[in-house]
Amino acid sequence: MRHFLQIDGLSTKDLHHILDTTESFTSIDDRAVKKVPLLRGKTIVNLFFEPSTRTRTTFELAAKRLSADVLNINIATSATTKGESLLDTLFNLQAMNSDMFIVRHPESGAAEFISNYVDSHVSVINAGDGRHAHPTQAMLDMFTIRKHYKEFSKLRVAIVGDILHSRVARSQIEALNILGAKEIRVIAPRTLLPANVAQLGVEVFQNCKEGLFNVDVVIMLRLQKERMQGGFIPSEHEYFQLYGLTPERLAIAKPNAIVMHPGPINRGVEISSEVADGPQSVILQQVKYGIAVRMAILSLAMSSADENGGGN
Amino acid sequence: MRHFLQIDGLSTKDLHHILDTTESFTSIDDRAVKKVPLLRGKTIVNLFFEPSTRTRTTFELAAKRLSADVLNINIATSATTKGESLLDTLFNLQAMNSDMFIVRHPESGAAEFISNYVDSHVSVINAGDGRHAHPTQAMLDMFTIRKHYKEFSKLRVAIVGDILHSRVARSQIEALNILGAKEIRVIAPRTLLPANVAQLGVEVFQNCKEGLFNVDVVIMLRLQKERMQGGFIPSEHEYFQLYGLTPERLAIAKPNAIVMHPGPINRGVEISSEVADGPQSVILQQVKYGIAVRMAILSLAMSSADENGGGN
Amino acid sequence: MRHFLQIDGLSTKDLHHILDTTESFTSIDDRAVKKVPLLRGKTIVNLFFEPSTRTRTTFELAAKRLSADVLNINIATSATTKGESLLDTLFNLQAMNSDMFIVRHPESGAAEFISNYVDSHVSVINAGDGRHAHPTQAMLDMFTIRKHYKEFSKLRVAIVGDILHSRVARSQIEALNILGAKEIRVIAPRTLLPANVAQLGVEVFQNCKEGLFNVDVVIMLRLQKERMQGGFIPSEHEYFQLYGLTPERLAIAKPNAIVMHPGPINRGVEISSEVADGPQSVILQQVKYGIAVRMAILSLAMSSADENGGGN
Q1: Which ipTM score applies to this complex?
Q2: C263 contacts in chain A (CB < 8 Å)
Q3: Global pTM?
Q4: Which CATH number characterizes residue B59's domain?
Q5: Domain span holding position A82
Q6: CA distance B137 to B294
Q7: Taking CB atoms and an 8 Å limit, are B88 and A265 in contact across chains?
């Protein structure tokens, strides 16, 4: 648990351990003084090669609430522009006695690549790498689901939208499989499905009517508008007609099914405002739990790293 | 006092309560360790839709000296660029357990709009909205005046310059009226006066010779050069000839009249360097008191919000 | 020692005092909680008129590990764009009760200029000014050398590369002279040597074969690619052929000579990867000691300023 790079490879016990640890941190979030001194004196570097105010902010808040010092490094504006290589930047930051790197990168595998080069007392957390994984997002989604349903083994979960490009979906599917969800469905047009979709351990649906039938959890994915040009879907309007989550469509699911979305949402593209703001939506709870789950992951990783690094 | 959105609507007692609280914080500013733990564990978000290093910095310093954690969100570079609405951004930040939003926005009424949507334990502070209000600036101006004169009821105050576009002037005029200043004068060319100027409770002068006569306080406004194109004034040079504060012009006021300016100053446009750096200038005192007045307002607002939010 | 503007003018005792203080801070860097409360409640302003993620980061980490509050002011995006003068910006920041300015500026003498205007309880640290000086870099270099060799008086040191434009080289040469190095050599093409090079107290070499012979320390300078256009050198390739540090060339120096570089390195331009990553390279140690040396300098300066400023 020194690094947290992907869901794949973790055990059911690992995931429940993270979720249980998260539970203890949610109570901190409700206190007047929302701080614990667990990571006091640690230096955590947000190493972002891709802009993301939202994800960076949740990690920054999680780190500050653990009393760590946070350094935000936006690589677009840093020394790499002076011709320095990624590894040189990394080794320099490490030499400054950084204890943890939270890495977001447009290339799949970047966080793991970095983890192969850091010292034994340094942790690497994947905050999203290419299309590969976004494991902290998946864990906050699992935590949100577990807050609403006792057992994963009874749950039918539908993930709707751009599975092809989504590191979020990939990590969610892995986590749901490890936690033993009864059924994982993906609902998407063929153009937004990966070639190997059958091997992911999911059932594939092309339409919502069948795919949403009787599910307990509906996870909507963000339609990344920058991919509209590519011809993956005819138009936003048509996408909404076929896959947008409306009250009528949500009624196909179980009566109290919860609706999730990793955010930021595109109202009227993948989800209607009635549903996003409606009683079944747990979208803002996901954001709230996102801090606690990251506090849990940072503190678990740091404590493994401390053991590993001996006196340091 | 949970929100601090404008001066209008506050009582004389309210304003003096803020000024008295500020007084207690000025002493902290002179200590070796300029920190108090009043807001420890609170998360304060600087939500700036308009760039302003100076105002953001003073709020950030005030918050840090109260031991709060500060998050700077520059909306131009954040998720709104991904198509997220203002309210979605707000609700997301709130779900991350933010305790206070300090809002600067180019539209009048933005801070109040936001205050209508936040949870009952969250505070909103207006750090300047369009042409409407800049209430913390007005309070630091009032504090500066009160440091130099015992009673507002004996004071003649002149505000010189671009009243039309100035949220600062509007808030100052409201505060001076509430605190019972003897006379509030505005001095400006017709083109820089709002249509309803007579209803603001001020006397209007078009020239400095009459307007500055016998005043105790001269408040110069910043001439926003970006408005020069609009034809509001013929040229910077001509403006300085007519309204710039020179030693000769200042001599029209009372001998020990104080000179104020919200900054940043345009030397040679609205004020000469002799006056800006002269013995009657209290411009840097305003900056100094700006930290203490914001510490006072943040802590008063947070303590109201805490009562409101119950255990949280 | 209230300001730290340049090496020139300091005594051997001064420099050893800084190096001894640094020694005590290196142990802090190895603790689990890498923080000491020495500068708690102090406000340190990183006043950067030139972008530099690396230098700003090391000062920010040093300040945070001393428990100070840090304000990063990037002048390109601040009030100076609103037409405010440098001194007005400075006085405003000072009025906000800043305790220290860490200044980087493209003009030689900028930090000293600023130091002439600050209050008696405020410190100014030069983080690089034009071609003049980069004294904290020189001190971390001296510390790195002292970690490897007991006595400066027995050392031959070669500095290779763009001496002409290098504030780093200038400060290193001053420090090495003050600390009594046996021999200081500079190795560079004529076009990259300053006119007054003979007066710097160095021996000048135009080729590595002679210049590197028998030296204990090789300091490579960064070739600033933005100066390539100026015709100072024919091409990067040719530069590497003549001055790049390869294993063969390093073999001319003493067998255990250490290799230093202020970073960020241009692999294949001024140094080969074999040498940069090889056993004689202490480049990452320099980065590591950079934090400790800056903690030492900030705390020494602040304690002088505190004495100077009396109760404040």
Answers
A1: 0.91
A2: 79, 84, 88, 92
A3: 0.93
A4: 3.40.50.1370
A5: 12-133+290-308
A6: 9
A7: yes
